[in-house]
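User: Here's a chain of 156 residues. Predict its fold as tokens.
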Amino acid sequence: MRRRSDERYNLAIGQVSDNQSVNAGENAGAGQRGGFWRRYVVLLHEGFGQAHYDIMLELEPGAKLATWQSPAWPITARTVTRRLPDHRREYLEYEGPVSGGRGRVRRISGGSCAVRQRGDDEILVRFEGDAVMLLTHEGGGQWAWIPAANITLDGP
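Assistant: Prediction complete.
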């Protein structure tokens, strides 16, 4: 267990700790826009252009899923992704063909995550199992996903 990094993370995420419930949508944290456990899914999307991963996060309880197209999963180094339109919540559980002949999706990962939005251009995500990502908007539809190993979470 990485207690020191967990403590730094908890300061940034709004005091969401390991002993709080990770049930989807349950308000387990504090904070104005986040700090709660949410659901996520990563789907491998094949058969429509180049194979890629669709990373979908529930940013608000019950809302459509914020979605990014990524060339890699898991993300182990800074990776630039493309923000896609929000997707239906059904994708949290769905595997199979995509409508309109747009290929197929297969679930690669999923579960709970804590989400903390810091303005419109920065999102901090802690996935079950303690993986932490900082998402930063780089302009247009481009977002960088930066693993916690490459950032300091207890900054300003």
